[in-house]
Design a protein that fits this description.
alpha+beta; Cytochrome-c3 Hydrogenase, chain B
Length: 518
């Protein structure tokens, strides 16, 4: 028996530790540990409820728009205006959030995960006419190689020409991310921590000039997605076919659904571009979402709070010396089982429920790779799903833009309630995201958020069931314990955001400074 510890896993958001016990080179037990402790929810208690969608964005600088959306949906529910969101407000929310999705998916593949498969050193001797490759070659020649090195040395398989093209696209993707952020700011005001999404709808007024500014940037991004991003993912998939059999995980998938197409007050009945539900990967059977089945366990988390609580009743009291605990992440469960969330879960749920756009794209990609649907339950399946979803969202935004009506309102008028509660369920780029709020005497009395990486990188639950990422690591063959590139490839396929996953706080006191960790 041998033990591999990767601390921290790099090229993700936040501080994640991976421990793997191997026998004959095969992972027998894996543990994901969120090693950082933060505090956001305590800051919200006692505040005006309308502060929530501003403060919760500070959970993460990479995916703040997801928290603004989930928080505003929870406030819509609590304020009783979920069925009165103006069409302009609904569409603007979708456009702001969609811009963040496109940026996030491009970021993940090119700047977080691609270096697991693309050898930047292949550009060191480049002398052609591509200005981006010439810049990279000059950068390498300086000898200061961060952020490309240090790294685990992967089994790089791409032909040199394809490899060099991917390096050029790595640099180009930086500009595309900037364009996506500029696109977001047209209706969101700024990024990160945009100002446009608000309870009742959105704050920005619609104009023809804003629609035009958004549209030309969107078309450039759609061209990049269609002609560079998706082909690059397929090229990597073609060179690494074994990674369609690696990193399966728990085989159960959960999606809350995303992109509101109407203002039905019940989120589980609201029409959305991407449907909600759970999926059994073994049988491809789908079941509608029932939020009441969501609970959180904490036996192996550094908290004193009780297990099996629904998020609306969540408790979070830190206990960093707790015996048997190994993570600051809780363990969310649906009907007591671990579920994977994220682009793969969303694409699978849409595919199985018959969404024609999703089925056409997925079937086309699988045909190109000569693979079947089970191949998606894997490392490369997650990357492929993310790229295809990026196209689905970008194409939908082109249609949504045409629904905007200059001069019409974008936000509903409402009165703040003295008491109430609300639930906001949406999908961050990394997966299912839920916010729950309780209001008493006109201020926030309790606030809880369960985020995508809390689902995917959770520790074991009270029954000893590993989380989705832990299950994906277990059973993996590691060729070299000193160079465990197989493990980081699996972890990065989930696109973890530990900054989001460890946002929890102790409930004692309303002041920021009244808690500490020893």
């Amino acid at each position: 028996m041998a033990k591999i510890i990767i601390d921290p896993v790099t090229r993700i958001e936040g501080h994640l530790k991976i421990s793997a016990v191997t026998e004959d080179g095969v992972v027998k037990e894996a543990r994901c540990s969120g090693m950082m402790f933060r505090g956001l929810e305590v800051i919200l208690r006692g505040r005006d409820p309308r502060d929530a969608q501003r403060i919760t964005q500070r959970i993460c600088g990479v995916c703040p728009t997801a928290h603004a959306t989930a928080s505003s949906l929870a406030l819509d529910d609590a304020f009783g205006v979920a069925d009165r969101i103006p069409d302009n407000g609904r569409v603007i929310r979708n456009l702001i959030f969609g811009s963040n999705y496109v940026q996030s998916h491009i970021l993940h593949f090119y700047h977080l995960a691609a270096l697991d498969y693309v050898d930047v050193a292949a550009a060191s001797d480049y002398s052609g006419s591509d200005p981006r490759l010439r810049q990279v070659a000059a950068f390498i020649a300086r000898g200061s190689l961060a952020p490309f090195f240090p790294r685990y040395e992967g089994d790089y398989r791409l032909p040199k020409a394809v490899n060099q093209a991917a390096v050029s696209h790595y640099v180009e993707a930086l500009d595309k991310r900037r364009e996506a952020q500029e696109m977001l700011a047209i209706f969101g005001g700024k990024m990160p921590h945009s100002m446009g999404i608000f309870p009742g709808g959105a704050l920005e007024k619609v104009s023809v000039s804003k629609i035009a500014e958004f549209r030309w940037r969107l078309e450039r991004l759609r061209d990049f997605i269609d002609n560079i991003y998706i082909p690059d993912v397929l090229a990597v998939a073609g060179a690494y076919p074994d990674y369609f059999q690696i990193g399966q995980g728990c085989g159960r998938y959960l999606a809350y659904g995303n992109w509101d197409l109407d203002s039905e007050p019940d989120l589980t009945k609201r029409k959305r571009l991407q449907p909600h539900g759970t999926l059994d990967g073994a049988t491809l059977s789908h079941s509608p979402l029932e939020p009441s089945r969501i609970t959180e366990d904490v036996q192996h988390s550094w908290y004193k709070s009780r297990s099996h609580l629904p998020p609306s009743d969540g408790q979070t009291e830190v206990d960093p010396m707790k015996p048997g605990a190994y993570s600051f992440l809780k363990a969310p469960r649906y009907d007591g089982d671990a579920y994977e969330v994220g682009p793969l879960a969303r694409v699978l749920v849409a595919y199985v429920t018959g969404d024609s756009t999703t089925r056409k794209l997925v079937d086309g990609a699988l045909a190109a790779l000569r693979a079947g649907v089970p191949a998606l339950f894997s490392v490369l399946g997650r990357h492929a799903a993310r790229a295809l979803e990026c196209k689905i969202v970008a194409d939908a935004m082109a249609d949504w833009l045409l629904e905007l009506r200059p001069g019409e309102p974008s936000c509903a008028v409402y009165d703040l309630p003295e008491s109430g509660s609300g639930m906001g369920l949406t999908e961050g780029p990394r997966g299912a995201l839920g916010h729950w709020i309780a209001i008493e005497n006109g201020v926030i009395s309790n606030y809880q958020a369960v985020v995508p990486t809390t689902w995917n990188c959770s520790p074991r639950d009270d029954g000893g069931q590993p989380g989705a990422c832990e299950q994906a690591l277990e059973g993996t063959k590691v060729k070299d314990a000193e160079n465990p590139f197989e493990l980081v490839r699996i972890v990065r396929s989930f696109d973890p955001c530990i900054a989001c996953a460890v946002h929890m706080v102790t409930p004692k006191g309303n002041e920021i400074g009244r808690f500490q960790v020893v």
